Amino acid sequence: MIRTKHLTKRFGHITALDSVSIGIGEGVTLILGPNGGGKSTFLNLCAGTYRPTEGVIRVFGGDPWADANVRQRFGVSFDPPALPKHRTGREWLEFLAEIRGGSTSDIIEAFSLGGFLDRRISTYSAGMMKRLSIASAFVGEPELVLLDEPLVNLDFDAIPEIVGLLERFASEGLSIVVVSHIWKPFLEFADRVVVIAGGRVKHDGSVEEVASALSLI
Ligand SMILES: Nc1ncnc2c1ncn2[C@@H]1O[C@H](COP(=O)(O)OP(=O)(O)OP(=O)(O)O)[C@@H](O)[C@H]1O
């Protein structure tokens, strides 16, 4: 699904990602690592929002930077959320559905957005924005969603709710690549854990392999 070869991203003199060669298949992949390790850079390269400095990334066999047909097949939620502040949540979801296809009603219901969807996004709390941002990734019936810190800013009740939803979508065949510092809930159903630190892949394996190596469980 995702394949990289010597994937490198530099920002000036900073090497954020350093010659990473990895394949990520179907299922749920949890990406962990220290602050500044390169996780969000990796996700942005997968999403086609960053262009590699060197090396190659292929998502569904195509170049996510250059190929809109590739981008059509996945959804993405960034952290902090990238949302148009002067639109309502409903306008934003409808705009996405126009571009990406599919309906928004199931997504609105699944993510319990109804209570605030007709307000301007500029009036949302951080948790509301996060909920809308994650929901946005599901518009257009994607085969894969890329989620950067989906649990940040969610309250104690919302965390198990959103994790439960993601687990349900995963059990229905959706692939998920998730970067999260709140990793524990994902260990329950992740198929694979990748640790990125210092711009490189430091660990890569099943939950049992990586989590026990890092004493996470
Ligand atoms: N747009 C940018 N311009 C300049 N430097 C950047 C940019 N984005 C990331 N970096 C740098 O690249 C490195 C990797 O950052 P990245 O955001 O990918 O790490 P991360 O693992 O996601 O960190 P965190 O867990 O803190 O979110 C850091 O040194 C960061 O300062």
From TrEMBL:
InterPro entries: AAA+_ATPase, ABC_transporter-like_ATP-bd, ABC_transporter-like_CS, ABC_Transporter_VariousFunc, P-loop_NTPase
PROSITE patterns from the UniProt entry: ABC_TRANSPORTER_1, ABC_TRANSPORTER_2
A GO MF label: ATP binding
Keyword Nucleotide-binding assigned: yes
The ABC transporter domain, residue ranges: 2-217
Keywords for the protein's UniProt record, in alphabetical order: ATP-binding, Nucleotide-binding, Transport
The keyword ATP-binding appears for this protein: yes
Domain of life, source organism: Archaea
Record-linked PANTHER family: ABC TRANSPORTER ATP-BINDING PROTEIN ALBC-RELATED
Name of protein: ABC transporter
Organism: Thermococcus eurythermalis
Lineage start: Archaea, Methanobacteriati, Methanobacteriota, Thermococci, Thermococcales
